[in-house]
Design brief:
The complex is a heterodimer of chains A (about 260) and B (about 375).
Chain A: E1 7-12, H1 18-24, H2 30-36, E2 38-41, E3 54-60, H3 66-78, E4 79-85, H4 87-91, H5 103-110, E5 134-136, H6 143-154, H7 166-173, H8 178-182, H9 218-226, H10 233-239, H11 248-255
Parallel strand pairs in A: 1-2, 1-3, 3-4, 4-5
Chain B: E1 7-11, H1 15-24, E2 28-35, E3 38-43, E4 54-59, E5 62-67, H2 84-87, E6 91-100, E7 103-108, E8 117-122, H3 124-136, H4 141-147, E9 151-156, H5 166-169, E10 181-187, E11 192-198, H6 201-207, E12 212-214, H7 217-233, H8 243-249, H9 255-262, H10 268-272, E13 279-285, E14 291-298, E15 308-309, E16 312-313, H11 318-337, H12 347-350, H13 358-369
Parallel strand pairs in B: 2-8, 8-9, 9-10
Antiparallel strand pairs in B: 1-11, 1-12, 2-3, 4-5, 6-7, 6-14, 10-11, 13-14, 15-16
Helix pairs in contact in B: 8-11, 8-13, 9-11
Classes of the chains: A alpha/beta (about 260), B alpha+beta (about 375).
Chain lengths: ~260, ~375
């Protein structure tokens, strides 16, 4: 290649690595990605550790320690374009459940020596600390959407990522609605599209992995679950208390069923 | 008495002969079949694929299958998909382009299906919906390529559901036009037959291959009685007199806010609607930038992107989006296309995840207009 390739950095904060592994999961497209981008920093793929600045940073994970609070500022300084990937980075992840409870009590219950643990009382998304250029939702993210974001970055265009409901994907695929036809509680109507309706396609209700859709009416869905579907309040609260529990619309709905 | 020499009767098992005759003519036959707890429209290969002895029970936000003892083949009402899925698919690639040197070479992707489609079991409501799509998408080359050689076998509806209101909309339960053949299912204790009527040369040539007998006056009387029963089975009504004007006048009604409190803005109603035709364009490029594609997807007036103009979405509030949908469907559609946009199929009522009922909302708005 005559022109230098844009430098890619992949960063990990509090997370399981699943989202950055989605990049390695792009098996058929991986060579094309590697030809288009210089993997300057990507610990899951290479021990190369090329210094910044970087053209594109993919940031996985949430902020849960003082150390990471400082580190994300440095990542932002070194990155021209910063994209957060996955529910941890965009909403705080499952570990944000602690935001709604006593962090100290958790530490005492889980660790033999809580005094060895140096973590913040909250798990927060990257956007709570630095400017984010694009947020890619999902737990984990969808590899086709990741490729779309990378392609959009390379071609200097807007990523084509819809923020509408999972229902739109269900209906496009011709999947029979599990809530209407089977009475299965499903978060699809309030959940951000992107997974391609994975769970309804196998007759399961949506778990809300991609977080809130653009205008989620969680209260109306919860009322239907309680009434027509006969779900108790605790079940409704728990459904909203998963990977995107700290995303505001889900957090509010969970709090309304906190009994 | 013979009905213009065109109305015949045949045993129910002859439906298999009809399907085979369509397949022999090169058609992919699309018809109702049980899949994942619903009667939906898919490619079928013989009578055994049809939902024999299966019916559905529908209410707002609820759909369940149930057995029926009489073994009727078309003894159910509408399922989740309409024929729109096959005529105006959820996603279509419009064109693709590749760089040749530094110039893009565009290739149109207009194409007819490899085999023409035959629709089996199209009800009056859906015949009306197809006629509406024919008007709306008259200039759409992708739609026309799929629509052109479609064969239609209609069914005079013998089972309306609790969410049906085609009688109000004047589209059913009888199949009036837009078909090659029309069937009426006669299910009795001793006999299970179909009346069959042809409306086109294709219908007549198919009919000639079927083992039929002349229809009798008794057959005709039974068929008329079935349609009358279907008419009374409908669980919903919509008063269409003055509806267009009442909805247009309700633009500032507080009722839209009341619906918005329940509406999920998920877009299900628009996607199950047999006439909602809106789409969005998506341009994609590959990693190298040397290959690009333009796709068209079903889009819904319930999304923010749908009304995105410079600076943001024009219809930001859910109330404004529900108002847009219902008003277009029941009022401004008439200004635009000369008919109502609603055919009374009831799908939007049954498949709304929280059971919002277009007939109930229209009634509430009508009541405000005429206290």
């Amino acid at each position: 290649m005559s022109q230098p390739r844009p430098k890619l950095a992949v960063w990990k904060f509090a997370s399981c690595d699943g989202c950055q592994l989605s990049l390695l999961d792009c098996e058929d497209e991986l060579l094309a990605v590697a030809e288009a981008l210089d993997f300057a920093m990507f610990r899951e793929a290479t021990s190369a550790d090329v210094a910044g600045p970087y053209d594109l940073s993919l940031v996985e994970g949430s902020i849960t320690t003082e150390h990471d609070l400082a580190r994300i500022q440095e990542v932002r300084r070194q990155s021209k374009w910063l994209v957060t990937i996955g529910a941890c980075a965009t909403a705080g992840g499952i570990q944000a459940l602690r935001n709604f409870r006593d962090h100290g009590e958790f530490l005492a219950a889980v660790y033999a020596r809580p005094d060895y643990i140096d973590s913040l009382a909250t798990s927060t998304p990257i956007s709570a600390h630095v400017r984010v250029d694009f947020e890619l939702h999902g737990c984990p993210i969808d590899k086709r959407q990741l490729l779309e974001v990378i392609s959009a970055f390379l071609n200097r265009r807007k990523p084509t990522i819809s923020a509408t409901s999972v229902c739109s994907e269900c209906k496009r695929r011709g999947i029979v609605c599990v809530m209407v036809a089977h009475g299965t509680p499903c978060l699809g109507p309030v959940t951000h599209a992107g997974c391609g309706a994975l769970c309804p396609a196998v007759n399961r209700g949506c778990y809300g992995c991609f977080g809130p859709m653009e205008t989620p009416n969680t209260a109306a869905l919860a009322a239907w679950w309680r009434g027509a579907l006969g779900q108790d309040s605790r079940s409704v609260g728990r459904a909203f208390s998963t990977f995107n529990c700290a995303a505001e619309p889900f957090a509010k709905e969970a709090a309304a069923h906190d009994d | 008495m013979e009905h213009d020499g065109e109305l015949r009767a045949m045993g129910a098992e002859a439906l298999d002969v009809l399907i085979a005759a369509l397949v022999a003519r090169g058609y992919d036959v699309i018809g109702p079949t049980v899949r994942d707890g619903a009667i939906d429209l898919h490619k079928i290969h013989g009578m055994g694929d049809l939902p024999i002895g299966v019916t559905d029970e529908q209410e707002a936000g609820r759909y369940r299958l149930a057995p029926r003892a009489d073994g009727a083949v078309f003894g159910f009402s509408n399922g989740p998909s309409s024929w729109k899925r096959h005529l105006h698919p959820p996603q279509t690639r419009l064109w693709h382009a590749d760089l040749s040197g530094d110039r893009p070479v565009y290739v149109s992707d207009v194409e007819a299906p490899a085999r023409p489609m035959a629709f089996l079991g199209v009800r009056g409501c859906d015949l009306a919906a197809i006629a509406i799509l024919d008007t709306v998408l008259a200039a759409d080359e992708h739609y026309q390529a799929r629509r052109q050689n479609v064969a239609v076998v209609a069914i005079n509806c013998g089972q309306a559901g609790a969410t049906c209101f085609c009688a109000s909309m004047g589209t059913g339960p009888a199949a009036r036009s837009g078909f090659d053949l029309a069937l009426t299912e006669l299910v009795g204790d001793t006999k299970h037959e179909f009346l069959i009527e042809t409306a086109t040369p294709l219908g007549t040539s198919l009919l000639a291959e079927l083992p039929t007998r002349t229809a009798t006056d008794e057959d005709l009387a039974r068929a008329a009685a079935i349609l009358e029963t279907t008419r009374t089975q409908m669980g919903r009504t919509l008063e269409t007199a003055g509806l267009k004007e009442d909805i247009a006048a309700a633009a500032e009604s507080p009722h839209w806010q009341e619906v918005a409190a329940r509406c999920l803005t998920c877009g299900n109603c628009t996607m199950v609607c047999p006439t909602c035709f809106c789409t969005e364009m998506e341009d994609t490029s590959d990693l190298t930038g040397a290959h690009a594609e333009r796709w068209r997807h079903w889009e819904s007036c319930f999304t923010l992107d749908f009304s995105y103009a410079m600076g943001g979405s024009v219809r930001h509030s859910p109330a404004s989006r529900y108002r847009q949908w219902l008003t277009h469907k029941l009022s401004t559609w008439e200004d635009q296309f000369g008919t109502s946009g609603c055919v009374g199929c009831g799908r939007c009522i049954a498949w709304c995840p929280v059971g919002i009922d277009i007939t109930a909302e229209a009634k509430a708005l009508q009541a405000e207009a005429r206290p």
